[in-house]
Each structure stands twice: as structure tokens, then as C-alpha cells.
Design a protein that fits this description.
Dihydrodipicolinate Reductase, domain 2; 457 residues; Rossmann fold
């Protein structure tokens, strides 16, 4: 090892306890170019800083110390912005911070619900402005709580959870890394009084997909203790939000919003960059998608016909609304995209094939350079990933935090016709997008124009 490497390693090691205290004691999340600086791994931090050799790690440590000494709490900060400040102390003192936390209720605890819990309660990770308070499920019978804990702890796709999960049967509580999470048993949202569990002004995340419209989800909103609802599926008669693209459309009045679908989140950020640079005349989205829990493992009756055939043995033609849903985030693409899907026998990670007719001619190098720059930007680093690996396969992207990752070596261009291949972890990558949306809602980070209107009212 070189002395420079050892010096960098020593500096990064010194940041771990400081980042830990910022998260534990003040609920401050620190980001660098849109990527969270986690307090759980020296290797992870070294890899992050390796992408930014221009940074002085000694200066970074000093900024983190000033941040910890400030009165700031319950917020997310961009490290590059802090480093650029000549008078950091005054800037931090001027930041609004009331230190409050919004309780979060997960309604449903299936694939997405459990990954949201993992992400929110991950060691070294901070979700400013909110805290997991309760999970609502149907009672599945004897030892239900122990089974829920086991499914959270052990996962066939994502591996064992790097944390401590304990069961408090007497109080019907799961202890997740020291955080007490109330388990509420109910078969219908109208049965639950959240205020009875001292939960007030909560953000409820519906992971069941049972209700997709405003009226259905309003049942949650009308329950005592609930202030806002997020749907983890495409929604009708509500804003469908792809974080990083149209989250600026959110206002304080939006009490029910959709986080759209995993496929919509995967392709929309990339499409937004291409639309802004070249313009898109038309296109088709084909998603080759991992099979999901709504398919049959063996041939049987299913309301979706082909989805009734054995998921582990067949490629199954089906439909996707992702192409049409893109226009809810990018209105200029209304009516320009078609879409379909093929479910395939892999348990996780999908790939979307974007066949686009652009308004201007381009090249492989230009498109790849454009999207690589976007993947390194603070605005879209969490949404767009960039792969240059010659031997990349689907399993390499399990656990990816980005909404979608461009397979740059597969990009094809002929004049104004472009074909792009976008990998996405349709479980965890999507869950990270949902958590980003939840953080924004919890912190009340609405547009400046909306805030001015609220202040004037």
C-alpha cells in the first residue's frame, strides 16, 4: 500500500464515528453527489471518495465536525454544498430545523414492506424527519410475530439482514436495531385507530396494492393518527411521483400520492435526460421482468390468463402500464410511448429495453457520456446508475440503490434511433426510491413557490 492510500484510509476511518453520531444523535444524513455517506463501512466510504479524488478528506472531516457542533437536526445535507461555503457556521445557523420526526406506518409487510423496513432501520443509514412506528398486517395464525421477524431477518434474494431483530410477544412489538415497531393486526384499514398507539400525524405507506385510487386510499387517511398516504404502486386520480424527476410538483396539500411502479422509476429518469437533450418523437418500452408473487408457481387458474402458467419454467407475455405512466412524470411524452412485458424465471432484477426515435441524431458515445454525467450529478445519482462492466449479468444488480442502471456497453444508435438497456432491482432499488419520497414528505421539502403561497395564506 502507498502512504497516500494509508493516509486516506486513516482519514476515512476517523469519519465513521462522526457520521454515526450525526445519524444517531441528530438524524442528519450526509450526501455526496446524491450518494449517502454510510457510517457502517470503511470500504463503502473509501469507494465513494475514490470517485471524487478532488476532495480534501481533511477538509471533509472539518466540515462534518462543524455540522455536528451546529444546532441542525432532522435533515439531509449535500457535502459539496457545505464544502463550497466560505462561512459554514453562519450558513448552518440559518438553516431551519425543528427536530421533529414523523411516525411512519407500513400497511402490509410483503416484499416491498420488509425492504422499506430494512432500509429505514439499516445500521449506518439515517432517514431524517421520520421514524418507523408501526406495521399493519393480517394475523397469519400461531407464531405470526416470530414468522414476521424471521422473514425480515432472512431473505432468499437479499440475504440476511445486517441488524438485530427481536420479538416482544407481550407487547406485540418488533425491536429492529433497538427501534420499537408496533405490530397492529387488522384485516381492514377501517378497523385501526392509530392514535390508540400514540401515533399522530403519521405517514402511512400502503404496500398491499389492494387500493389504487384516491377513494380507496382515503380510508387510511380518515383513520385517527394518519396525515398522509403513499401508495407503492401506480395510482389513479393522484400524483404519480418519480423521485428525482417530478417530486418538485409535490405540495403540502398532497395527502395521497403514488410512488409509481418499479419499472416507471427505472426508466423515467433516463427518459427525462434524453427528452431534455434530444427530444423524443416516439418509442417502445419492453421490460424483461423477474417473476413476482402475483404469478402461479405451477399451472393453475389466474385472472391474468398467462400469469397462471408456471412462473419458474416459462417466459410469460404480459402487459405493463409503465410506458404510459411515464407521461405522468414527463407530460411532454404523453401518447408517445408504448410498452409490454415478459416475465422470466429469475427471482429479482429486471431489464428495460428502450427503443426510441429521437428528434435529433446522436451517437453511442454522446448518449453514454450524457447519462454517465447524469449518474454523477447530485440531482440524479440516486436515480441513474451507469455500468461499464463487460461481463455484467442480472444478479450483479441485486441490492442496487439506484432506480435504474444503464448498461452502457449495450447502447445502440443509428441516426436518430437509439436502443438502451436499463437494469433495475425491481425490489430494493424501487424501495430506495420510495424511501427518498417518504423523506421529502416527512421533511416538508416542497417547492419554494408553494412555501411562499402557504406563508401568504
Amino acid at each position: 500500500m502507498t502512504s497516500t492510500w494509508l493516509q486516506s484510509l486513516s482519514q476515512v476511518e476517523s469519519m465513521i464515528p462522526l457520521l454515526g453520531k450525526l445519524g444517531r444523535e441528530k438524524s442528519i444524513k450526509v450526501q455526496l453527489a446524491g450518494n449517502t455517506l454510510m457510517a457502517d463501512s470503511v470500504t463503502g466510504l473509501m469507494a465513494t471518495f475514490d470517485q471524487h479524488p478532488e476532495l480534501d478528506l481533511g477538509q471533509v472531516y472539518g466540515v462534518l465536525e462543524e455540522l455536528y457542533a451546529s444546532e441542525l437536526a432532522q435533515t439531509c445535507v449535500e457535502l459539496e454544498d457545505l464544502l463550497a461555503q466560505a462561512d459554514l457556521t453562519s450558513m448552518l445557523a440559518a438553516q431551519p430545523s425543528d427536530g421533529s420526526e414523523v411516525p411512519v406506518v407500513l400497511y402490509g409487510f410483503g416484499r416491498i414492506g420488509r425492504l422499506l423496513a430494512r432500509r429505514m432501520c439499516a445500521l449506518g443509514h439515517t432517514t431524517p424527519g421520520m421514524k418507523l412506528a408501526a406495521i399493519v398486517v393480517r394475523n397469519a395464525g400461531a407464531n405470526d410475530l416470530a414468522k414476521r421477524a424471521s422473514l425480515l431477518k432472512y431473505d432468499s434474494v437479499h440475504g440476511a439482514y445486517d441488524g438485530i431483530v427481536k420479538v416482544d410477544e407481550a407487547n406485540q412489538v418488533l425491536m429492529i436495531n433497538g427501534n420499537a415497531v408496533q405490530i397492529i393486526y387488522a384485516s381492514d384499514p377501517a378497523e385501526v385507530d392509530y392514535s390508540a398507539y400514540n401515533i399522530e400525524k403519521a405517514l402511512l405507506v400502503d404496500n398491499t396494492g389492494r387500493w389504487r385510487d384516491h377513494d380507496g386510499l382515503s380510508v387510511h387517511l380518515n383513520r385517527p393518527g394518519i396525515e398522509r398516504v403513499v401508495l407503492t404502486a401506480p395510482g389513479k386520480s393522484m400524483k404519480n411521483v418519480v423521485f428525482g424527476v417530478n417530486d418538485s410538483d409535490l405540495t403540502a396539500e398532497d395527502q395521497i400520492v403514488s410512488a409509481a411502479s418499479c419499472t416507471t422509476n427505472a426508466i423515467t429518469p433516463i427518459l427525462s435526460v434524453l427528452e431534455e437533450k434530444f427530444g423524443i418523437e416516439s418509442g417502445h418500452v419492453e421490460t424483461v421482468h423477474a417473476y413476482t408473487n402475483d404469478q402461479n408457481l405451477i399451472d393453475n387458474i389466474h385472472k391474468g390468463d398467462r400469469r397462471g402458467r408456471a412462473a419458474g419454467m416459462n417466459m410469460v407475455m404480459t402487459e405493463t402500464g409503465a410506458a404510459k405512466a411515464v407521461s405522468k412524470a414527463i407530460p411532454s411524452l404523453e401518447g408517445k410511448l408504448s410498452g409490454s412485458a415478459i416475465r422470466v424465471p429469475v427471482i429479482n432484477v429486471s431489464i428495460a429495453v428502450l427503443s426510441l426515435n429521437l428528434k435529433a441524431g446522436t451517437s453511442v458515445d454522446e448518449i453514454n457520456a450524457l447519462l454517465k454525467a447524469a449518474s454523477n450529478s447530485a440531482e440524479l445519482a440516486g436515480q441513474i446508475g451507469f455500468s461499464e462492466e463487460a461481463d455484467a449479468v442480472s444478479s450483479d444488480f441485486i441490492g442496487s440503490q439506484q432506480a435504474g442502471i444503464l448498461d452502457s456497453l449495450s447502447t445502440k444508435v443509428r441516426g436518430n434511433q437509439a436502443t438502451l438497456y436499463v437494469w433495475y432491482d425491481n425490489e430494493y432499488g424501487y424501495s430506495c426510491q420510495v424511501v427518498r419520497l417518504m423523506e421529502k414528505l416527512a421533511l416538508g421539502q416542497f417547492s419554494k413557490a408553494q412555501l411562499l403561497e402557504d406563508q401568504a395564506a
